[in-house]
Amino acid sequence: METTSVISKPKKKQKLNEEENIDGNNKCLVNLPEEILLHILSFLKTKDAVRTSVLCKRWEYLWASIPNLDFNQLHSSPAKRKRKRTLFMKFVERALSLRDSSFIERFTLRCDVLSDVSCVNMWISAAISHNVQELYIELENFEGDFSLPHCLFTSKTLTSLGLYMCCILKLPTTICFSNLKFLRIGKVTFSDEYLTQQFFSGLPVLEELELNGCSWVGLKVVRISAPKLHSMSIFEFESYEDGGCQVMIFGVSLKKFHYSGLLSSEYCLYESLSLEKACIYLETKNTSEQIAHRVYKLLSGLSNIEVLGLSSKAVKVLIYAAELLSHIPMFNNLVDLKLTVNEMSMDLDHEALLEILQRSPCLENLEFWTGGLTANCEEDDRILDPVPPCFLSHLKRIKVNCYDGDENKLSAIKILLKKAVVLEKIVIFISVYPAQKFDNLVKFCKQLIELPRGSQNCKIVLKWYDCSGEMSKKCRIVL
Fold first, then answer.
1. Contacts of 120 (CB under 8 A, 6+ apart)
2. Residue 270, beta-bridge partner list
3. How confident is the model at residue 240 (pLDDT cuts 50, 70, 90)?
4. CB-hemisphere CA count at 13 Å for 457?
5. Are 242 and 265 in contact (CB under 8 A)?
6. What is the DSSP-derived secondary structure letter of residue 320?
7. How far is 454 from 328, CA to CA, in rounded Å?
8. What is the full DSSP assignment across 216-231?
9. Which structural domain, as residue segments, surrounds residue 428?
């Protein structure tokens, strides 16, 4: 937080006119109930709430009871943070020392640590002592391992915790977050297998978990078991020389799962019978057999999924463990499949994609997002043969994004239209047809109209953005 001065006893200034009328009522601002005034102050930045102490006698220390405290030093440049550091330190210390006994609902601390570890931990301890419910900590510029106050790990009032600190986190031996429902951890390295296990086992009521850029240095197995966990997200963009860790996720109540990254570690879902929605976005260029096995492990825990998002890399890498394709589970409940193309294109005749489609008999919606979809136009009669069961009975909607006029992409659309016999609508988002290329658009429309359709009730919807004017506008044609 940038401050220009530290908190001191406010000077006498002219009070508010206590006879002033507000909204036609006979009550003035200063006579409003304290809970309403505190609610108003809770919408201000902490430094601005403190400044209200000069308004009148009643407001002099009213800020000391505000439910939300936000101390943010990281919003300014490193040079400015260095110049203002002493003021920031004194401001936080003074604000906490003048705090009354009221509870803190939300406490945010974003700052450089440098050599002031003890001060930072004292501030966190102060928040815990005031029965804080939501705690967000983001720390930068320190070296070595870091130990947070032990009282944090046994808090009985904490319901939401965010930890963002690039360090090896030293954990205490006693860990129990009895009321913690939301946990977000970023950049933290876990290095002690036993204590890490204790940490992820001390979350009896946890509902949402996010691991962003965390690593498991030297760990072989980590077990995450939270009986009420219903949403989990993992973002992993660092590779490990030791081959990574096996992370076992027991999600008896898990409904949503998201993974995005390099699959540097192996993640396995167990007891995930309630899982409804999942995304696996593989970002690595590594197309090894090991990565293929890790994608297969994730897919094996998604047999009951209803909505599934996959990156094209997650699909294509499976071919490097081709012997596993026949062991991919049946997705009997899958109704919505979204393929995000993070390469140039997704081949409609790719063996792994065909296997997934064959094992999704109730699929109703199929989407190819960005990058495009292609098929070999010379062999289009042999693609999707045998036809996946969903194409014959359930598939009603298909979306193809970023069509650019490529002949192989048109061939893929032709195959989809021909093979999906109960299709109701195919939406094609065009990326290259502004108003000045209207002739090309007319030509494309004629090509689409002439394509054979397996379903006589199928509508072809073209969408694009016309950016030829001052403002882009969304355009649409139904064929």
1. 109, 111, 113, 139
2. 250
3. confident
4. 7
5. no
6. G
7. 29
8. ETT-SEEEEE-TT--E
9. 317-479
Q: What percent of the chain has pLDDT over 90?
A: 59
Would you say residue 326 lies in a domain?
yes
453 within a domain of the structure (yes/no) = yes
Angle between helices 78-97 and 117-129 (to 10 degrees): 40
- Please give the biggest Cα pair distance in the chain: 87
Within 13 Å, how many C-alpha atoms sit on residue 185's CB side?
18
So what's the pLDDT on residue 191?
A: 93
- Residue 38 CA to residue 44 CA, distance in Å, equals 10
pLDDT digits (tens, 9 = 90+) for 340-366: 987 667 889 899 999 999 999 999 999
Tell me the C-alpha distance between 307 and 31, whole Å.
54
What tens digit of pLDDT does each residue of 28-63 get? 666 666 667 666 666 667 666 666 655 566 565 566
Q: 179-184 long-range contacts, Cβ below 8 Å, gap at least 24? A: 179/155, 179/205, 180/155, 180/205, 180/206, 181/205, 181/206, 181/207, 181/208, 182/206, 182/207, 182/208, 183/208, 183/209, 183/210, 184/209, 184/210, 184/212
Residue 127 lies in a domain: no
Cα end-to-end distance, the chain, whole Å? 57
> CB 36: neighbour CB atoms within 10 A?
10
With left for phi above 0 and alpha for psi between -120 and 50, is residue 467 left, alpha or beta? alpha
Q: Which two tokens stand for residue 166?
A: 């690039």
* CA-closest candidate to residue 63, choices 72, 54, 71, 73: 54
**Structure token pair of residue 199:** 């940490």
Report whether 171 contacts 148 (CB < 8 A).
no
Half-sphere exposure of residue 69: CA atoms within 13 angstroms, side-chain side? 30
> Angle CA(418)–CA(419)–CA(421) in degrees, nearest 5?
90
Q: What is the 3-state secondary structure (H, E, C) of 43-95?
A: CCCHHHHHHHHHCCHHHCCHHHHCCEEEEECCCCCHHHHHHHHHHHHHHHHHH
374 has pLDDT over 70: yes
Distance between CA atoms of 341 and 299, rounded to whole angstroms? 18
User: 474 lies in a domain?
Assistant: yes
With tokens 């991919």, the residue in question is 328
Q: Given the DSSP bridges, would you call strands 459-466 and 473-478 parallel, antiparallel or unpaired? A: antiparallel
Phi, psi of 163, rounded to the nearest 5 degrees: -125, 115
pTM of the model: 0.86
Other C-beta atoms closer than 10 Å to the C-beta of 77 total 9
419-458: string of b/e by CB count within 10 Å (b at 16+)?
Answer: bbebbeebbbbbeebbeeeeeebeebeeebeeeebbbeeb
Residue type, 110: R
Q: Domain tally for the chain?
A: 1
